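In this supplementary section we document a worked example of the pipeline. Step one takes a protein sequence of length 84 as its only input; no multiple sequence alignment statistics are reported here. Step two produces a three-dimensional model, which step three serialises into structure tokens for compact storage. The input and output of this example are shown verbatim.
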Amino acid sequence: MKVQIEGNLYIEHDGRQFIIKQYTGKLDSKGSEAYAAIGYYTKLEFAIKRLVQLKISESTAATLRELLTEVESIGEYIRSKIDF
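The serialised model returned by step three reads:
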């Protein structure tokens, strides 16, 4: 399973774990797409929590109210990605 989150960010499952990968757009020495592994997770829920943390770390909020608004927006964003 390989699911695009946004841009070059993906969640992949190899049968044992979920991996958040960021593809570089380059090829490795074997001709495969090169990527940086952001993390390895035993459950999809943990990978999604990490995605929330990544989005929060990109925040430019200067106040607690702004941060709360951004966190709510991140929640809506993730729901939009997983709702059918």
